[in-house]
């Protein structure tokens, strides 16, 4: 078998080279009126004869028989007037054509240098060298010249091609090769039949998949999280129904086992766009309801009563031909954290990253929460070789975009605008992403918002018991230093505007170790009602470290230290001012047992939760098991 293939490989360059030489001769003869005036009809075969164009497809046996029977008007090369002498099979006596003198055949040359008019600088020198020295196909004229610039006649072209075919025909498979091949086919008949059966089976399965698949342009993926968590004994927070400085009441919370399931349908209509539909179901309740503070919330909370809901719906597509500009249209569950860079690559995922809600990224990105709107992203610079780049982002989201109505608070004497795409609650973002050198990236963020929680549900807070229906009495006033009610009103953040600024960075120190961090600042101002003009400032920061692939590929060790959003100044006269003394400490290790199963145990500790030194540290133990498909 290998001998047959070897001979075929040896033969293929001969045809290519020979045709290249003959093509070169035709190019050199462009000034000849004889070649320029050839009629197209002349090239077509006539009944009972064979055209020159069909010669390469004829077998050597046919050509030899044709020569013996004198059925084709192809004279011997030696009989052509002024024609070159080629080197076919042993010379035979030929008849003399009319008007053509017979030349003595030149002995076969063994080197192209024996042709006196061929120089190494000639454009076809290498082709001639191969034909003469390697294949012994072309010889030359009896006077030792090749006459490469001379126009070739159709007879000469046919004779040269016929001679080359005679030479290379011996290089193809012989009868012995064919017999050996037939013997191998018989010997491996069973194996060949098995392969053929497998191919047929695969073709049938592919046809069945194509006929029964869900959709040709849609892909289904998803994740399932099993959560086991609980507050460690001894943790406690002051009873929010008393006051900030009240007695310490330990939390009696039993460990829980809960879950969250997501199903994702991704559709692409032309390869560069993405329509995503995400369904979610779960019963993971937030620990803010248990502990009285948002600082203890988990990263993957979802409580839908175990029923599936439409959690996210968006469409992404390029708006420039080069793909640098992209637009994201959020119709449901829009979140800036899904649309822009958050600069915490190994810990930002709720499925496999940080265990806490605060530890994933800068909380200002969660402003305004789930909403609808658009985000535009444009890549100004992207140098993959140097690892540098520059991106610009603009976004607008409204949490009440689907509702045309407003909510009126008659008790407060003003209207809380929190609905509609425009005119209600909203957040508008501008961000610049910079990659100045390889492995380093940072972002500068500005968000203008109204009627939203600038902390994204991660900062100091009380449960609903902290805001009784009796108005805004001493309990509310004493709690005015909390970030979920920065201006001390009875409506929380409903009528507050805010200017938020963020700085985020990520640096890959080495292949298996990286650090990230952020700082966020918000200036909040009340816009309506009796609290109009009140002003408060909220701040947060964090540093994270991640070490991937320490034990197995896909493992991650994560550490987080920082301060969740807290008031750094209070607008309420006579009310307490925050001492900014709550700290978040988190450590976890993600074990990746298979590409689709990961188990992440960890500890979350909040020191002085709700910026109150009267509170005991809040310690949560968490084990998250994630299944992806």
From TrEMBL:
InterPro entries documented for this protein: Carb-sel_porin_OprB, Cell_Envelope_Struct_Comp, OprB_sf, Por_som-like, SLH_dom
Keyword field contains Protein biosynthesis: no
This protein's UniProt keywords: Signal
Signal peptide: 1-28
Cited NCBIfam families: por_somb
Pfam families found in the cross-reference section: OprB (PF04966), SLH (PF00395)
PANTHER family per UniProt: OUTER MEMBRANE PROTEIN ALPHA, OUTER MEMBRANE PROTEIN ALPHA-RELATED
Keyword RNA-binding: no
Domain spans labelled SLH: 111-175
Family statement: Belongs to the OprB family.
Name used for this protein in its record: Iron uptake porin
């Amino acid at each position: 078998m290998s001998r047959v293939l070897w001979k075929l490989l040896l033969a293929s360059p001969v045809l290519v080279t020979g045709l290249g030489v003959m093509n070169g001769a035709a190019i050199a003869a462009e000034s000849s009126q004889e070649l320029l005036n050839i009629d197209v009809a002349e090239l077509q075969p006539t009944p009972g004869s064979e055209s020159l164009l069909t010669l390469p497809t004829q077998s050597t046996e046919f050509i030899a028989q044709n020569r013996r029977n004198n059925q084709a008007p192809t004279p011997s090369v030696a009989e052509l007037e002024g024609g070159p002498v080629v080197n076919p099979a042993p010379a035979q006596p030929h008849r003399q054509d009319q008007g053509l003198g017979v030349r003595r055949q030149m002995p076969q040359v063994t080197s192209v240098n024996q042709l006196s008019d061929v120089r190494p600088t000639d454009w076809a020198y290498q082709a001639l060298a191969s034909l003469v020295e390697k294949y012994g196909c072309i010889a030359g004229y009896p006077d030792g010249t090749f006459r490469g610039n001379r126009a070739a006649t159709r007879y000469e072209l046919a004779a040269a091609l016929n001679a080359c075919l005679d030479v290379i025909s011996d290089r193809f498979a012989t009868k012995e090769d064919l017999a050996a091949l037939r013997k191998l086919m018989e010997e491996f008949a069973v194996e060949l039949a098995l392969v053929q059966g497998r191919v047929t089976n695969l073709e049938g399965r592919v046809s069945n998949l194509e006929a029964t698949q869900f959709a040709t342009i849609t892909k289904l993926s998803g994740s399932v999280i099993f959560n086991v968590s609980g507050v460690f004994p001894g943790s406690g927070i002051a009873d929010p129904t008393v006051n900030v400085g009240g007695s310490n009441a330990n939390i009696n919370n039993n460990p829980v086992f809960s879950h969250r399931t997501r199903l994702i349908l991704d559709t692409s209509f032309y390869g560069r766009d993405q329509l995503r539909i995400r369904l979610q179901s779960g019963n993971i309740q937030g620990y803010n309801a248990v502990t009285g503070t948002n600082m203890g919330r988990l990263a993957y909370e979802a409580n839908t009563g175990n029923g599936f809901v439409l959690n996210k719906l968006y469409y992404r597509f390029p708006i420039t031909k080069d793909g640098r500009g992209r637009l994201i249209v959020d119709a449901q569950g829009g979140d800036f954290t899904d649309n822009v860079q958050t600069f915490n690559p190994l810990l930002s995922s709720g499925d496999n990253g940080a265990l806490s809600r605060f530890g994933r990224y800068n909380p200002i990105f969660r402003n305004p929460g789930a909403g609808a709107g658009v985000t535009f992203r444009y890549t100004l610079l992207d140098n993959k070789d140097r690892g540098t780049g520059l991106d610009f982002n603009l976004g607008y989201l409204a949490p009440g975009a689907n509702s045309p109505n407003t909510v009126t608070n008659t008790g407060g004497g003003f209207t809380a605008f929190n609905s509609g795409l425009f005119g209600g609650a909203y957040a508008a973002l501008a961000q610049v992403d910079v990659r100045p050198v390889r492995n380093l990236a940072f972002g500068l963020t500005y968000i203008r918002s109204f009627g939203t929680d600038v902390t994204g549900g991660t900062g100091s807070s009380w449960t609903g018991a902290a805001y009784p229906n009796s108005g805004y009495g001493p309990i509310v006033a004493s709690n005015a230093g909390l970030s979920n009610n920065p201006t001390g009103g009875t409506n929380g953040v409903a009528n507050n505007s805010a200017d938020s600024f963020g700085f985020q960075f990520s640096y890959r120190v080495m292949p298996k170790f990286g650090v990230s961090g952020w700082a966020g600042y918000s200036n909040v101002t009340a816009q309506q009602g009796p609290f109009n003009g009140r002003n408060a400032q909220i701040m947060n920061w964090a540093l994270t470290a991640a070490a991937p692939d320490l034990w197995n590929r896909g493992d991650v060790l994560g550490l987080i230290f920082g301060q969740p959003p807290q008031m750094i100044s209070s607008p309420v006269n006579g009310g307490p001012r925050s001492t900014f003394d709550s700290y978040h400490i988190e450590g976890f290790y993600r074990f990746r047992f298979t590409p689709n199963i990961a188990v992440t145990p960890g500890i979350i500790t909040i020191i002085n939760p709700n910026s109150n030194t009267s509170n005991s540290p809040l310690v949560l133990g968490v084990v998250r098991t994630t299944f992806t498909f």
